[in-house]
Structures are given as structure tokens and as C-alpha cells.
Amino acid sequence: MIRILFIVIIILLIDFRISDAKLSEGGYPRMPVLTKSALSEIVEMQRVNNDLLRWESETYQSQKPLKPLRFATAFDVSISINSHGKWFKSDDGWWIWQVHVRSNDAYSINLIFSNYNLNPGQKLFIFTPDYSYIIGAFTEKNIIEGNILATAPLPGDEVVVQFETPRISAEVPFLITQVNHDFIGILKFFDTRRPLGKTAGECIPDINCAVAEAWRRVQNSVCRVMVEGKELCTGILLNNTAHNSRPYILTANHCINTRIKATSSLFLFNYESPYCGSIDGDVSNSISGSILRATHDSLDFSLVELNVKPPPSFRPYYAGWNRATNPTDTVACIQHSQGDIKKISIDNDSPVVSSFGMDGYTRNGFWKINRWEYGATEVGASGGPLFNSREQVVGNLVGGTSRCNFPFNDYFSRFDMAWDNKPDSSKQLKYWLDPVKTNQANLDGKRFYEGTNFCKAFTNLVDGDEHELLRLTSTAGANAGYWTGTNNQGITEIGDKFTIPGNEKILGVSIGLGRRFLLSGSSSSKLRINIYNLRGLITEIIHTQQVQLRDLASGAMNYIPFNELIEPADSFLVAISFDNMASGDSIAIFQSVRKNNPKNSFYFRKNNQWSDFKRSNSAGYSGALAFEVVACNVSNTTIDTSKVDNPLEVKLFPNPTTGRLQISSNHNLTVDMISVYNLRGQKVPYRSARLTPRKIEINLVGHSNGIYLIRVLDGNKHFTGKIFFGAN
Length: 728
Hints:
Blueprint: E1 41-44, H1 50-63, E2 69-70, E3 72-79, E4 86-89, E5 95-102, E6 108-114, E7 123-127, E8 134-138, E9 149-150, E10 154-155, E11 158-165, E12 175-182, E13 222-227, E14 231-238, E15 248-251, H2 259-263, E16 265-269, E17 286-288, E18 290-296, E19 301-306, E20 320-322, E21 331-335, E22 343-347, E23 352-354, E24 366-371, E25 385-387, E26 392-400, E27 408-414, H3 415-420, H4 430-433, E28 442-443, E29 455-459, E30 467-468, E31 471-473, E32 479-482, E33 491-499, E34 505-517, E35 526-535, E36 538-548, E37 556-566, E38 571-580, E39 586-589, E40 591-594, E41 602-606, E42 609-612, H5 613-616, E43 622-625, E44 627-632, E45 642-643, E46 650-653, E47 660-665, E48 674-678, E49 687-692, E50 695-699, E51 706-714, E52 717-725
Parallel strand pairs: 1-5, 20-26, 29-45
Antiparallel strand pairs: 2-14, 3-12, 4-5, 5-11, 6-9, 6-10, 6-12, 7-8, 7-11, 13-14, 13-16, 14-15, 15-19, 16-17, 18-19, 20-28, 21-22, 21-25, 23-24, 24-27, 25-26, 26-27, 29-44, 30-40, 31-32, 33-38, 33-41, 34-37, 34-39, 34-44, 35-36, 35-38, 40-43, 41-42, 46-47, 47-50, 48-51, 49-50, 51-52
């Protein structure tokens, strides 16, 4: 079963092992031998009113300028093997303790354990009563400082806690101390993993839109933070002067300000759409628990250290920082407004020193954004990093009044003040981020995984695409299913062609499931994932794997880790077969339908023959499937998320520039191949002069200082780079 709800599936191959294995071990819970008279105990929480809780939360948040998103109410409990539940035996002789925890009408439930102290060999699972969703196994490897264990939410209003041990002893291995009732709907399973189906405001661009190009490298440093199973904030993974990849996360003090909150937080990486579109992201890249290192209430920052380093498959980037007292350029905030997929807000002006208008906050301890040119911030963005144009963190979001239709007045804790405003190591960043005592004023970010552990994500979706479900019609004009799903027109398999030169190893694929209909929750329908090497029109299958359809979320990306490392040819096809669908069940995968872009990567199999989508539909549309491949042992010359087209070799000089910029390539260049954009995504005019067939000079004199994007397009090859323009 695919653990789409929890932390990560460990790849049990030597190149990808994690030295600190405080991640769940996977596996499946044992089945107890039950009789009709031996039913598990149900512990039921006090009934609450979701509508009232939502109203109270919205009212509270509207009266406060702080921006965490509260989505759950907590019940304090004391549930252990001595006080609740029942013991059973399994067929293989193990002892199994079970208890059901129910909170009526909850959209999801998550639990917090204290005194967690399992012995070697013992296992803990949490799952829904029908076994559709399972997290665990948790073992003695999950014991951390404070003996706290926080779990990811499971959909629905009832979960089963199961403890397995080869023998019963007098020791109490854990205590369930908190049951969190989701009154908004943070998961997209039975309801939605976005609050009330609500996304961040339409004015806030997705992180993979062109406007975010200048901050593409640091997007994988930002994570969503779930605090005590009740609130959502944003955090940033930071580098330090020892360059030792210690996983420090910076967020807001009003999000995490105690050891318990740090220990019981979940950190979700890569929760984003694979392209500039609103497909809900995959939620498998999360890590449980951290250690509070430093916090300061009147500057409103906290620094925590994750219990485990993000593994290679997370593609982590450790962001740099800058403690300048006067950032004088464009800034951006990457964040999870509304707890939604990753977003970005951009201000083309410099932030100004300001006080935050609440009692108890340090005077002039904050950067103020007077107005966002692009986007805004909403609840859930608290703790979000403020980057300068060099992709260095200069602050973290505290609060403000901005929102769509009113993008004004947001406040960020000043990094330079948080550095050493207080001499106590528990109230400053300097002690932790400058362990070798270099006293550097700034530090660049870094990716630490290299070689076989250097991983990226690849997609064929591009700017301008829109994901949709395209229906098929019969010759009589009746609905015949979907081009990318179940149908009665003979299409049995669909695939997307990828071209990734090199010796890459494929870890898995995320698929954008647009529609899923099951006649029953226990449906046996499976999707078959096939990987084909391409040799012209001849296909060679190199991997096949099945996944239960009921394990996948509709309207979202779903990561499917492969059960072996796949080493494909430079060109390969990632395909989904519908040959194991139960009668009455149906699905459809999101696709792009391109009317003006001729590039097509979508193929389908009909009557055992593969065909090109573009040549097979009467309108001549081209397109791509909503797939994202995660591969390791890839080149480190391109940026995640990467379009799979081969990049041009282009150099920009000088950079920064005072106006005149030379563009050179290993191919002949023409002016019509070159476009210049500002950070608003607007095309900028420029003057040009040809220096050689492969070198062109462009002149930006007369434009405003700031960051500009240079795009060079030559057929299927492309280049995008950023320049820093500052006129004398």
C-alpha cells in the first residue's frame, strides 16, 4: 500500500540510505484474531460543532494581524494500554493491542503521543477502520528528545491505534495525550486537504509560474509546518557557516515557541503544483518532529532543528541568509497561504524598517512591505521567508493586513536583529547558524546531495498549460469516457514521453489524478505503472508495478515510489494501464490540451498499438499528462522543477550589468530568439547589436533597476537566466 499520507518510503538501496532513520518503516499491520464477542474498544470524544469552530477561528484570525491557520481543535486525553483498548492474538503468535478513537464529524484526525518509548521489535500503526489509509510502522527508531510522537492526519472521524509486541510486559510504551479534530478539512480525501475547498487568493502566483523564476533555486527550501496538529504555518530550511547540512528550520515564534510544539510539529516539503497551475500537490514528503534551538517572542522568530535530515528524494535546498541592515532591492516571500500549495509574493521595492503594531514587540525590529506588486499573504503564511534578489533570507513573516484586493502592510522579523539582538544562545540565530564563528554578514545557500544522491523532478507541463479532463465521444456523439482514463473506445493505456540524457535513476512518479469513482471503499481496482524504453517506434518495457486506486487522492498529485531503482534510456515512456479496473470503477488523469503549442508528449495505446495524441484527435491538439518524474544521479546544471527539454548552453556577461549585456551561445543566435521579462511577467523592449553569429549584445538602459529574466528559445531547446540590472 502506498503511504501517501506519511513521511517518506525509505529506498532500501545503498546509494539512498539515510543514516538517521527516524522515518516510518512502512509495512502492514498484523490482523488480530477476532471473535464476535471480542470487539475493540471505541474511545469517543465530546461532540463539537464544526460550523461554530470555523466561525470562532475566522473571527479570532480577523482580529489578529498574525497569520497562522488554525484548522483543528484539541482534546486532551490519557489513553494507554493499561487504561483503554483490548488485547488480541495474531495468527503468528504476536500480541496486538487495539483502540478505536472517534471524534464525530471530524474531517480528519491526528494524534500526539507522549512517553513514547518502544522496545526493539515492537511496532505502532495508526489506520482508518477499513485499512484504506495506514501510517507507520513506528518503532524504537522514532524515539526522539522529549519522547513525543506527532502523526500525520488520517481522513474521516475514526482511527485505529494498533500496538504490536512479541510479548506483553508491565512497561507502558506510550501515552496518547492529544486527539486533534479537524473542523476545516485539511486532507483531500473524503473532503479536501485545502481548507473548505478554499485555496489561496487568485492574486498569489504559484511557485512554478514564470514570475518566480528568479527564486527557482530556493523553492525547495520552503516547507509547510503543522503545529501540534492544530495550526498551519510556513518554515524555511537554512544553511550554516559549517556547511554541515544540519536541518535548521526558521519560522515564527507565534507558531512554535515551546519544546512541546517543536517536538509535535510536522514539516511538509515540496507541497506544490508541478507547473504554473492549481493542481493540488503531493503530501508524502513530510518529517515529524524537531528540537527547539532558539526563540524570541518580541522579534517573533523561532529556530528548530529537524529530527532527521530531509532525504535525497525531497531534493532539499538549504537557503542562504543575509543580515544586512538595509536590503535595497526586490524581495519575495515564498509561503503556504491558506495552507495551500506553495505560493510567492513579490515586492519590487526595498522593505523599510518598522515597528510591528502590537504590544510587546521590539521597536523597529521588523521589515515592512508597503505594497506587494505581485500577490499578498494570508493565514498559513506565518513564518514564511523574505528573500532578497540574491535568494538569501532577510526575514520571516510575522503578520500584517495584506490580502488579495488589499496587498498592503506585511511585517517580517529582521534577520539582522534576530542574529544577535540577545546574548542568550536560546534567543539568537548567530550561535546556531555561525558555529565556526566566521562572523559572516551573508551566506549563500547550498544543495548537499551530490552524485548518485542528486535528485530532481521533471515534468512536461509548461507555462500556459491548463490541466483538464478531455472527454471522448462515440460516433453517435455520446459520452465515451476520457482520453486519459476509463473509456469504451478501446484506449487501454496512456503514457507521457520523457527525455533526460544521462545515467539517471528513477525513484518514482507523481500522477495528477483528476477523477476517481469507486463503487465501494474496498474496491480492488488497481492502476499498473509501466516504464518503457523508447527505440524509435519500438518500446521495451523495463518496469511494471501496481498501485491500489483507493490509495490515491483525486484532484491532486500522488507520488508513487517505485519498488526498485529504474535506469531508463535517454528517452522513455511513463505509462498507466487500466487493465485491472473493477467493473463500475472509473478514473481520469489530468492532461494539458494545447491549441497553439505543437509540442506533444502524450501517447496512448489502442488495439495494442501506440499512437500520438496530436495526430489522433480531429482538432489537432497536442498535450502532456500531469506527470512528474523524480530522478536521482542527474546533472546539477538545471534547476528543479525542470522542464525536460534539452537546455541551450548560454552565457550572460557581465552580470550584474549597468545596461549592456552580452548573450553568447554554442549555437547561432538571432534577435527573435531572445526575450526579456521583468518580474511581473511583462515582456521588456530592448535595443540589440549582433557582435558575432553566436553573440548578441542587448541594451536595457532606460529601464528600472532590478531583476530581469532572459529567455532564449531555439526550437525545442531553451535557456532562462536572471540578471541584476543597476544603472550607474
